[in-house]
Amino acid sequence: MSKPRFFVDRPVKFAVDITGPDARHIKDVLRIGVGDIIEAVDPEGTISDVEITSLLPDKVSGRVIASYRAREELPEVFLFQALPKASKMDDIVRQSTEIGVTGIFPVMTERVVVKLESEKAPKKVERWQKIAAEAAKQSHRTLIPSVNSVLTWMGALEKLREFDEIIVFWEEERGTLPYEVLDPAAKNIAVVIGPEGGLSDKEVLDLKGLGAKVVTLGESILRVETAAPVAVALVLYDLRKIKKFPFSQ
């Protein structure tokens, strides 16, 4: 059985203190006691087996009994997701985190239906970041993906200039598959997904102007909450094959 995993905000050496909601979760939900083992992941990506030595109301302490580094990471894959309706973004954040995305940029595009008021946007992003953190723990990631502030279309285009490669999944593209265009030398890759109504022709032209490569998800038209995690999974899978990266620990 896998050990519960928690993220800590400083490098782990010999001892670990976990506070706040995670400490309460360890004691009150998981019912972990003194002598039990958990995993702690620090900002450097070091994974430590920690034996619990003390349980206080708002702090759990433990001693490190073993540490190891995570294996070499694939190139970073970031999702630029046009905002979908209702709570679909929750599912997209959760599933993309489980699959292996490095970060997520919510984007307002021409066909986005959601009217996100500026004063409510930070609370939405905070909620999505919490979902990413929980999904990262559950799926035993070695990092918590960053969920960034909502971008305008022009803001997204400016941010995309920072990436080595841009892959756009568009329902109007029928022939090109991701593995045919992925650059094995890219260190960071942006994956762009439109909203329920798709990206407009002008938006796709804007992306092509940045050197983006437009690809297909196949013959089926997928729901946006399905398309995003499938796109991330396809890119990561193809990168593993191209770079001959192992599929198991």
Automatic annotation (TrEMBL):
Annotated keywords: Cytoplasm, Methyltransferase, rRNA processing, S-adenosyl-L-methionine, Transferase
Superkingdom field: Bacteria
Boundaries of every Ribosomal RNA small subunit methyltransferase E methyltransferase domain copy: 73-235
InterPro entries per UniProt: Alpha/beta_knot_MTases (IPR029028), PUA-like_sf (IPR015947), RsmE (IPR006700), RsmE_MTase_dom (IPR046886), RsmE_PUA-like (IPR046887), tRNA_m1G_MTases_N (IPR029026)
Subcellular location: Cytoplasm
GO MF terms held by the record: rRNA (uridine-N3-)-methyltransferase activity
Domain Ribosomal RNA small subunit methyltransferase E PUA-like as annotated: residue spans: 18-60
Known function: Specifically methylates the N3 position of the uracil ring of uridine 1498 (m3U1498) in 16S rRNA. Acts on the fully assembled 30S ribosomal subunit.
Family membership: Belongs to the RNA methyltransferase RsmE family.
Name of the protein: Ribosomal RNA small subunit methyltransferase E
Species per Swiss-Prot/TrEMBL record: Candidatus Aquicultor secundus
